[in-house]
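re the bet — no i am not wrong, look at it urself. input seq straight from the record:
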Amino acid sequence: MDPRLFRPLFAGPIDIIGDVHGELGALHDLLAALGYDRGGEHPRGRRLVFIGDLCDRGEDSPGVVSFVEDLVSRGLAQCLLGNHELNLLCGSRKEGNGWFFDEDHDQAAGKFTRSRRAAGPQQQERFLAFFDSLPLALERTDLRLVHAAWDEAAITLLRDCQASPLELYRAYQDRARDIARQSGLNEKAAAEWRRHGAQLHDPAATVPLLEHMGRLDTHYQMANPVRIATSGPEALAPRTFYASGKWRMVERLTWWQRYRQMTPVLVGHYWRWPTAALRERFSRGEHDLFEGTGHDEWHGLRRNVYCLDFGVGARYRERAGGRSSTFETRLGAVRWPERELVTDDGARRPLRPGLPEATASG
């Protein structure tokens, strides 16, 4: 197996799948719409590439991970590491990933009660080994893929690196921890935590902007290329906001407004709502980074970056609202080189505006 974190992307026609988040049914529906059989094979030899975030929140994370792992082992797919897989590698308990742990923190809190659990220690170990074998970036002359951000400084550090994702993450995490301790930032953030930590998970609380906690979070994020590739660059927010079960001091940055290179980039990670109504109903509290941009439209400085995460990770909330089979959230794929968007309901549309040939050629 290729040990590099930065690997060549499949040649030939491919279909790039957005964040699946444990929605196995949506994945099978999408593959059928794309012309694949139940085993993941295409009659014309097309292959699949998964952008990361296979798991968490949905009904069957173990089923999705097992299915994709099998496709990768058979050479039918490539898969990037997303921040949700990285969380599990690090043993971080986050909202929606209780399915993986022996003691399910989500179930204990009455959340994600329909999520299928991991089968046990052997499956957990196999999944972790699979996640730790995944690359952080894929590239060919006409296309680049990363889960969250094609940040040139981070990408430069990842090129030719043969450490595993977890090894590299820990090395930079340890370095950032030393800097935070020596600078006194740790101590200042800890003081804020002692005053306000009990309120951070209470959506009804009034939490001020905790500047040192925010700067500490930003420091750990921006000092680690694994974090940047999987969850993107961040900065201290102007005010607190409640998202994904927690009051937050840090906001995501629209790195694509600074991306000047000609080669197109596809990412996932950033929830991009098919309709304004869905955004209003299911937004987790964060600012809409794609305001004014259609979900089938390229974005960024050169209009050559495209996010293909269409909120299927909120499908559990649709179920809680009474839906059981007909959903508004979508799982999407981009067909390349056709530059066509296909969603799990079978809808197809070209990405717009189309890239000039000179730009698309890389």
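see?? The chain has one domain: 6-161+254-360. told u. also The first helix runs from residue 24 to 34. so pay up
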